[in-house]
């Protein structure tokens, strides 16, 4: 018998204050290890470890790859690296993005659930879209506990709300209440057999996120092949059904939960529309030049031909501008002439 001594925290937009509030309330001799992921820009240094170190009694660090796990310590994922929980140590690796994020909350939560099962407490805090939902499902499947920040108080309620759509959290709490509850939960005793054993899919997905060559080179993939292309690398996505949540993963390892996939596809559609508008505007400019040249040379028939084509192209460009205007709310219309 052991205790719930592995706590994983995930946050995105508006997540610094909840993380700080939790750190403030933790016991100085907490008999557990804390792991935190905050979505970060890949090219900016992170000061989250320093913030959490000053906020509460526990030492907070950015770990080195392979570093031993110690109790009463907070391990913070660095920018552009996934944080994995292994048996007795951490891994810090630049694997494929999940939900377009690196570090990814799902990667951390799934890795902890795979190894430590019912010993894990997963906490999803403020953030946009749905990173963390699949990871929290993995925690619950393996017998761990799920804690979600009260959506009404979150700066960005998407992540807590999406988690609550697909699973029944054990606790829904305000950020200032979570630390005290964790102090109590980490004392609860559990048996290793309290949760289901890790599925082959859970094991494979963790290995894929670590860029394990043997797993990546296998022909079979977790799930069922879909007709949807990966927004990041344009490879085929495989559908994965887990705990009522339909997810997607491609051959190279990119993974998406539903809201993130929809957001990525919407972004691609808008990009394609802007590229089409640019092409049409270039065509308009070219045909105006051809009309002027034909008129200067008094080639009346040719000028008429180019004017007809110009009118068609201008009409198409105007229709596309109107579509973009409806999508974005404001579109700068290039000057004519």
Q: In oligomeric terms, what are we looking at?
A: single chain
Kindly report the average pLDDT value. Answer: 94
The CATH homologous superfamily of the largest domain is termed Methylesterase CheB, C-terminal domain
Unreliable spans: 330-337
Q: Number of helical runs?
A: 10
The CATH level-2 architecture of the largest domain is identified as 3-Layer(aba) Sandwich
CA-based shape: elongated
CATH topology of the largest domain: Rossmann fold
CATH class of the largest domain: Alpha Beta
Care to give the gist of this entry?
With 337 residues, the chain is an alpha/beta fold. It has 10 helices and 15 strands. Helix content is 42%, strand content 19%.
């Amino acid at each position: 018998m052991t205790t719930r001594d592995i706590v994983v925290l995930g946050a995105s937009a508006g997540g610094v204050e909840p993380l700080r509030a939790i750190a403030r309330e933790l016991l100085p001799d907490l008999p557990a290890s804390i792991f935190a992921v905050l979505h970060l820009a890949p090219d900016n240094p992170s000061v989250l470890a320093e913030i959490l170190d000053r906020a509460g009694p526990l030492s907070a660090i950015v770990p080195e790859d392979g570093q031993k796990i110690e109790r009463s310590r907070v391990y913070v994922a660095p920018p552009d690296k996934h944080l994995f929980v292994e048996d007795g140590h951490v891994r810090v690796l630049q694997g494929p993005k999940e939900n377009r994020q690196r570090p990814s909350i799902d990667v951390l939560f799934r890795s902890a659930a795979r190894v430590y099962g019912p010993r894990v407490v997963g906490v999803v805090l403020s953030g946009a879209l749905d990173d963390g939902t699949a990871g929290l499902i993995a925690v619950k499947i393996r017998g761990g506990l799920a804690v979600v920040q009260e959506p009404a108080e979150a700066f960005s309620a998407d992540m807590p709300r999406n988690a609550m759509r697909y699973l029944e959290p054990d606790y829904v709490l305000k950020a200032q209440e979570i630390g005290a509850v964790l102090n109590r939960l980490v004392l609860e005793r559990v048996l290793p057999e309290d949760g289901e054993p890790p599925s082959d899919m859970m094991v494979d997905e963790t290995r894929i996120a670590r860029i394990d060559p043997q797993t990546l080179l296998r022909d079979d993939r977790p799930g069922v092949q879909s007709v949807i292309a990966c927004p990041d690398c344009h490879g085929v996505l495989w559908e994965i059904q887990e705990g009522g949540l339909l997810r997607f993963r491609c051959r190279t390892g990119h993974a998406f939960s539903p809201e993130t996939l929809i957001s990525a596809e919407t972004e691609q559609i808008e990009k394609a529309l802007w590229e089409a508008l640019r092409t049409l505007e270039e065509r308009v400019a070219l045909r105006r030049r051809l009309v002027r040249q034909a008129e200067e040379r008094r080639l009346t028939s040719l000028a008429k031909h180019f004017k007809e084509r110009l009118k068609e192209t201008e009409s198409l460009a105007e229709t596309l501008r109107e579509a973009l205007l409806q999508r974005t709310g404001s579109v700068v219309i290039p000057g004519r002439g």
